[in-house]
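Record 1 of the preview.
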Amino acid sequence: MIGAMSPRQSVALELAAIGAAALVFVATFRVRPAYVDFALAGVAVVLIWASAARSRRLWDAAPLVPGGSASRRAWLESGAFTAAALLVLIGLAIWTADASGATLAARASNWHLAVAALLYFPWALLQQYIFQRYLLGRLLRLLPTAAAIAVTALAFSSVHFPRWPVMALVVIACSVWSTIYYRTRALLPLAASHALLGSVLHYWVFGNDLLENWLP
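->
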């Protein structure tokens, strides 16, 4: 039966099964230790690696936007977005620091942020791989480009449920990252942007020391 399916039908079935499993998990385990997410990500990597050839074929079939070096464009575009996003996060940091009584200077001068961003990078790269290389590549088989990017952003946001402020920020960020990946096929600039913005959000806006949480 499955062998008789068209590529479009098999992609739809694959994503429906994954989506149903993800919804059940998120609804069942609304609060979970961080190591559970890492373990699930590891399982996802194994499954995605097993389907790497299929992902490559799907992306080979998608048009590549012309215009110079794709890698250079990816770094420039992700850098511009990251700079703009940092300005927004600085504004949020000033607001939350005033509300909590913690000084922005104390948060901004914490050297742990730089180390956390470096440690965050592999995790950010993994997430970008899962949602851009794997998910977006398949959604493009089923939906118009804009809709595929929107669904990818919503899926990326949903894994942060029920942290609504984070989910809102992730929808915006992932929409930009997905657009850049569609245009360039470059993951490293997106992971760098993700790691830096995620670290700044935790340290400057939430006042959360990731390094202390990871290495108590």
